[in-house]
Amino acid sequence: MPANTADTGKATTTLAQGLSTNTSGPDASHEARTADKAAVHSQKPGKSGKSGKPGETRKAEKAEKAAKLKRGATLKTRSTQPAGPPYASRPEVMTFADELAERRSLDRSWVRRAIGQAQHTPAIVRLMQPPSQTFVKNWRVYRSRFIDSKRIAAGVQFWNAHQTELARAEKEYGVPGHLIVGILGVETIYGQDTGKFRVMDALTTLAFDFPASHPRAQERSEFFKRELEQFLSQQSRLGTDPMLPRGSYAGAMGMPQFMPSSWVRFAIDFDGDNTIDLWNSPADAIGSVANYFKAFNWQPGMPTHYPVSFDTEKLDMDALMAPDILPTFSLSSFAAKGAVLKGAALQHTGPLALIELLNGPGEPSYVAGTENFYAITRYNWSSYYAMAVIELAEAVAREMKNKP
Ligand SMILES: [Ca+2]
Question: Whose CB has fewer CB within 10 Å in the chain, the N or C terminal residue?
Answer without folding.
Answer: C
